[in-house]
Design brief:
Elongation Factor Tu (Ef-tu), domain 3, Rossmann fold, globular, seven-stranded mixed beta sheet, disordered N terminus, 6 helices, six-stranded antiparallel beta barrel, single chain, 2 domains, 18 strands, alpha/beta
C-alpha cells in the first residue's frame, strides 16, 4: 500500500507530502533523457506549475534529486517528470522500472503566478527547463479567467525528448521557416516553436532567447502591455531572458536552478540574493522559490 504523510511547513509554503510513488512507466529518449510517470496522488492533487519533487533515485544513493514537474493529473493521481541523466543518481533513476516504488517529497516550492491582465504568455524553456513550461502551458489552456494565449518556445542542443513535427498553428511574428513544434502542445491547441544551434529540421537556428526576441520585436507596441514572460533553464538563458524583459518593458518570472541538499529549506544551501520591498534578503530557492520576479534577483535586474 502507498505510504503518505504530511509534513508541516509554514502555511505560506503550502503542503509538502511524503509518498511512496509507484513507477507507472519510464520512457527513454535520445541524449540520455527520460520521462518517468509516477503514481503520487497527494503530489498530483496539489502540484502547480513551477513546483518540483525531491526524489530518492535508489536505496543505495542517500541524497534525493530535485526534478521539475512536467504534468500533474489530479484525477488519475499521476505526475510526469522529464530528466536528463547527469551523475550516478539520475543514472540509477533511469534503471527503475514499472511497479517499483520511489520515496517522493512534493510538491515543493512557490510556482508561477499568471496575471489575467497579461494573457499573452511567452513561455521560454531551455533543456531540462522545458518541463515547467509544458505544465504551465497546459494549465493556462484550461483557465477561463482570461483569453489566455500561451506561446511556448523551447531550446535544446541535443535531440528534443519528443518527435517533432511542423506546426499547423499560426504564430505571428515567428521567423519564416521555424515550424517545428511539440505535438503534445499542438494537440491541445497551444502554439509552440523550437530553437537549436544543432541544425535540427524546422527549428529556429539560434538561441531560444533570440527566437523570443524576434517574436517580441514583431509585436505592435500596444500589445506588449498584454505580455508576460515565464522562463526556466540554464542560468545564462535566464539572464538573457531577463535582459529581454528589460529591453521590451515586460514583466518576467524565472524558475532558478540551484544545487539542493535537503530541498525543504532546512540546509539553506540554495540561497540567492533577492531585492524585496524591505531591502535585500537571502532567499532559499527550494521553498521561497524556485520562481522569482526576474528583475528582483541580484545580477538579473
Amino acid at each position: 500500500m502507498p505510504v503518505s504523510m504530511t509534513l508541516a511547513p509554514p502555511a505560506h509554503r503550502g503542503t509538502i507530502f511524503l509518498e511512496s510513488a509507484r513507477v507507472l512507466s519510464q520512457e527513454a529518449h535520445p541524449g540520455g533523457q527520460f520521462v518517468i510517470r509516477l503514481a503520487a496522488p497527494q503530489c498530483a492533487a496539489h502540484a502547480e506549475p513551477g513546483a518540483f519533487v525531491h526524489l530518492t533515485c535508489d536505496p543505495s544513493i542517500p541524497l534525493r534529486r530535485p526534478l521539475s514537474i512536467m504534468s500533474a493529473d489530479p484525477a488519475a493521481g499521476e505526475i510526469e517528470l522529464l530528466y536528463k541523466v547527469v551523475g550516478a543518481g539520475l543514472e540509477a533513476l533511469s534503471r527503475r522500472r514499472a511497479g517499483e516504488t520511489l520515496s517522493l517529497l512534493g510538491p515543493i516550492g512557490c510556482g508561477f503566478t499568471p496575471h489575467p491582465e497579461r494573457p499573452l504568455a511567452l513561455l521560454i524553456g531551455g533543456g531540462v527547463g522545458i518541463p515547467p513550461m509544458v505544465f504551465l502551458a497546459e494549465r493556462l489552456r484550461a483557465r477561463v479567467d482570461a483569453d489566455w494565449q500561451p506561446l511556448v518556445l523551447m531550446g535544446s542542443e541535443i535531440p528534443f525528448p519528443f518527435r517533432t513535427r511542423p506546426s499547423r498553428i499560426i504564430a505571428a511574428g515567428i521567423p519564416t521557416g521555424s515550424l517545428a513544434c511539440m505535438p503534445r502542445l499542438e494537440e491541445l491547441g497551444i502554439a509552440s516553436r523550437l530553437a537549436t544551434r544543432a541544425g535540427y529540421a524546422g527549428c529556429f537556428e539560434g538561441f531560444v532567447t533570440e527566437l523570443a526576441d524576434a517574436w517580441l520585436a514583431a509585436l505592435p507596441v500596444p500589445e506588449l502591455a498584454r505580455v508576460e514572460l515565464y522562463a526556466c533553464g540554464p542560468t545564462p538563458m535566464l539572464h538573457a531572458t531577463a535582459a529581454l524583459a528589460r529591453r521590451h518593458g515586460v514583466p518576467c518570472q524565472v524558475s532558478l536552478e540551484e544545487f539542493m541538499a535537503c530541498g525543504v529549506g532546512g540546509c539553506a544551501g540554495c540561497t540567492v540574493l533577492v531585492n524585496t520591498a524591505t531591502g535585500a534578503a537571502m532567499k532559499r530557492v527550494c521553498v521561497d522559490g524556485p520562481v522569482f520576479d526576474a528583475l528582483s534577483v541580484a545580477g538579473f535586474g
